[in-house]
Amino acid sequence: MRFERFLLNDVLIDTQKMSVKVEGHWLPLEHKQLALIKLLIERAPNPVSRDDIINQLWPNLIVSDNSVSQLVAQIRKTLNDTSKEPKFIKTVPRVGYQCIADVANAPTIIQHAKTPQKNVPLNWLTAGLFIGVMSAFLVLFDFSASKPVTQVKYVSRLTSSPGAEVYLNFSPNGRFLAYSQIVTGESQYDLVVYDLQINTSHTIKSSGYSEQAPSWSMDGNWLIYYRYSPFSCEIRAISVHNTIELWRLNKDVFVLDCDSAQIPGNVTWNSTGQLFVREMNEGNKELVKYQIEETEDRQISLSERAVVTRAEDYHMRGNRVIYQQAQQWYQGILNGDGEVTTTAKIDIPGKPYFGLSDSDILSVGKELKLHSASSEVTSLYRPFGEVSEVSLDRGKGLIAHTEGIAEVNLYSYNLQGDSFEPISSNSRIDTHASISADGMQLAYVSTASHADPHIENVEIWSKHRFKSSPSLLTKLPIKDTPKLLVFSPNGEYLAVLSQSNTLFIISTFSKTPHSVVKENQSLKNIYWSDDSKTLFFETSESNHPQQWRHDIANASNALLPENAQQYVPLVKKNISFQSYIEDVKAYLFEALEGEIPLQQLSHSLQLYRPAVHENGIYYVIRQGHQLSLFNFNSQLQKNEFIADIGLHLYDVNADLGLSTTASGTQIILNRVENLEMDIVLHEFILE
């Protein structure tokens, strides 16, 4: 067996070039990745223990089993392999890993040329001649309208280390790419800059704090970033006017205070001396503008604060801004005073970014897509996992984006044992959990952790308390995923609201769904009657509210009289009530008497959906990266700390929330784990 060039199934590996050809694209491989592949092949079909791998790849070094797991995960990601359905590397429980792929020498040109002829029937020769003539005709006349057009070309993977590299931002001159990096097992981000001119990364800040979301001043002389400690948050800036090797020695300066519960966002320092940043004001996220000046002693001075618009998120390019209000994205124009003067809705799936031209929009998610002004949509890149963010250098035509996966797993928290018990598989993303009032039934939404064209549905699973494993309840089209699950009080029915605002009910016994309302954008305020026989909801006609009841026995809807609207207590409300989070926030802020600052409470409740029960409210507070679970006991009027439930290191665009029984004796929650994000570089191919 020659290890210079060989085939692993249908994948070509070139050890001299340190690269692998997967689906027609060359991707880089690291030395240890190649060493492990070679070791597994040499020992096949026998498995190789973790200890043997450590001894072979890390001789005379003390490393943990996690190093082996991360290395295997990197190889699987490159080869588009999975641990659940392996084609290359199989995990052998309590032993190690085994190569299960077919291995062969790569065929050479000479071998192709000496392939022996076979006797071919005349009809096959005739057919071959016809196909050859037609192929030549197509090549000569080049029907370009039917040929796919390559919009981006893969350049390289800039990072490939265990952990996550996120918050990307090109410098104004396009030479540098700033990002935040966190290593697996750590709880703080470092600030890193990649020099694309010499292909080298430099750690600029590794202070023990968490430095995140770097951005550049328009002149390229300052690097601005968020600094988090367990109890505070600051926006700071570091001068980068000298050579990059000296940046880490430059003194950073204070710019602005921020809320430690806030997820970092963009900071824009434009060429006219204006600084734009997202802030929280009385529970509302706003895009705020300051005048910014650099003083003679190289400090930063801010003045003239003004609110531009409400914005949950935003991106800016020149005088154009993309921003989000009430889950809806808009595009606007900023005038000379930094005010939004012209706006238009952006109705595309996924998070939007400015494209290479002023008329294009990029969107991220399961695919990287380009949306033209003529409403044409082009799939540019399908990642392994998801693309969560992008940064463009328009001058050089480069696009850098994140690519990776994270696990979102469900847990039951044991109040007596102070422990977390896993409920769902860690190979998928499990969200929108709902537990019945008596705690006997649990339902949740399960989606694939990475894009797969063969997966067309999202699944709803259910689990009975006394059964060891969950069972599939129903499937929905992947483009219409559920956003709310609500059990009836007796646990026999599950109301499901989808992204298209379609409401249907599933019997937990027959598992048969039936539709209640289809694609009604005004649908809201969904709740069950106490006897589980009726589902109430509200729609509107010509801005006039209409109250409805759905009778379970007859599977029919009836319009209620205008004066029939009932008071709905907080314990029956859910996210279909537009004021639900605001109602919980107002109740908690008053009951806690300011113990938790309003801004911190607002950020935390928007990050993690709370759960109301008969005796109080379970909720999560974010302090820095730490997530802590609390219960406000309404009977005792006491705020009770329950447990630390983990870290929130990055927004993976997954629904996070709590669910509890009527009495509050059981708690279900999900959390993000094993975040893996790399940076990939492409260049645009212009037509």
Protein described:
This protein is mainly beta and 687 residues long. Strands 9, 30, 31, 32, 49 and 50 form a six-stranded antiparallel β-sheet that branches. It has a five-stranded antiparallel β-sheet with strand order 4-3-2-1-8, with no helix packed on it. β41 (524-528) and β42 (534-541) form a beta hairpin. α1 (31-43) packs across α3 and α6 (580-591) packs antiparallel against α7 (598-607). The longest helix is centred in the N-terminal third of the chain and has 20 residues, at 122-141. It is globular and about 75 Å long. 36% of the residues are buried.
Structural class label: mainly beta
Query: Averaged pLDDT, please?
Result: 85
Strand content: over 45%
* Oligomeric state, counting identical vs distinct chains: single chain
List its traits:
five-stranded antiparallel sheet, 687 residues
Quick summary of this structure?
The protein is mostly beta strands and 687 residues long. It contains 7 helices and 50 strands. Helix content is 12%, strand content 46%.
SSE arrangement:
Elements (H helix, E strand, L loop, with lengths): L4 E4 L2 E4 L4 E4 L2 E4 L2 H13 L4 E2 H8 L7 H15 L9 E4 L3 E4 L3 E3 L3 H5 L8 H20 L10 E6 L5 E8 L5 E8 L6 E6 L4 E6 L4 E7 L5 E7 L4 E7 L12 E7 L8 E3 L4 E8 L2 E11 L5 E11 L2 E5 L2 E6 L2 E7 L5 E7 L4 E4 L6 E4 L3 E4 L5 E5 L8 E4 L4 E17 L4 E4 L5 E8 L5 E8 L8 E8 L6 E7 L4 E6 L5 E6 L4 E5 L5 E5 L6 E5 L5 E8 L2 E8 L4 E4 L20 H12 L6 H10 L3 E3 L2 E8 L2 E8 L4 E10 L10 E3 L6 E18 L3
Antiparallel strand pairs: 1-2, 1-8, 2-3, 3-4, 5-7, 6-7, 9-50, 10-11, 11-12, 12-13, 14-15, 15-16, 16-17, 18-19, 19-20, 20-21, 22-23, 23-24, 24-25, 26-27, 27-28, 28-29, 30-31, 31-32, 31-50, 33-34, 34-35, 35-36, 37-38, 38-39, 39-40, 41-42, 42-43, 43-44, 45-46, 46-47, 47-48, 49-50
